Amino acid sequence: MLKRKLLKPLYWTYMGLLWTQSITAIVWVILIATNKNEDGPTLVTKLLLVVGVVITLPGDIPSFVWSSCITSHKCIPWYYLTYYDFALFLSIPSVIIFFLVLRTEFLRLDQEAQYSVLGGEVDSLFSIHSQSTEHS
């Protein structure tokens, strides 16, 4: 009995943190997708990020919701596969999508850093040239 009393607050803390994480992910993705910045990620990258987050959300539904669905036999398309299994399977394409998003962002930021370094070198050449013309 004592063990059950200790596990109940831990379980609800876990559920609260899980739902907070899911809601926060949705809010962040909406903020990223609606942020308009010419130097920021492309529209395709933003859409991939939104799709990646959305398809992971069914896997974040608490297991007691899925288990009640499974035990009522309302969500069993086949006797060996449930909707929860399908929701967990969606995590595979979401990981691939997140990898693509991170790769495109890394390449964009790498290219931007190269342009920044090149711009700094050009600026320093102009300043050296202008200093040498002032002294002569």
Features:
single chain; 0% strand; 136 residues; 5 helices; mainly alpha
What does this structure look like?
The protein is 82% helix and 0% strand. It has 136 residues and is mainly α. It starts with a helix and ends with a helix. α1 (2-34) runs antiparallel to α2 and α2 (43-60) runs antiparallel to α4. The model has no long low-confidence stretch (mean pLDDT 72). The chain has helices spanning 2-34, 43-60, 63-71, 83-89, 91-135.
Outline:
With 136 residues, the protein is an all-alpha fold.
- Mind summarizing the main beta sheet? none
What general form does the structure show?
Answer: elongated
Give the distance, in angstroms, between the N- and C-terminal Cα atoms.
91 Å
Structural class: mainly alpha
How many helices does DSSP assign?
5
Number of strands: 0
Strand content: under 5%
What gyration radius follows from the Cα positions, in whole Å? 25 Å
Mean pLDDT: 72
- Catalogue the unreliable spans: none
| Overall helicity | over 70%
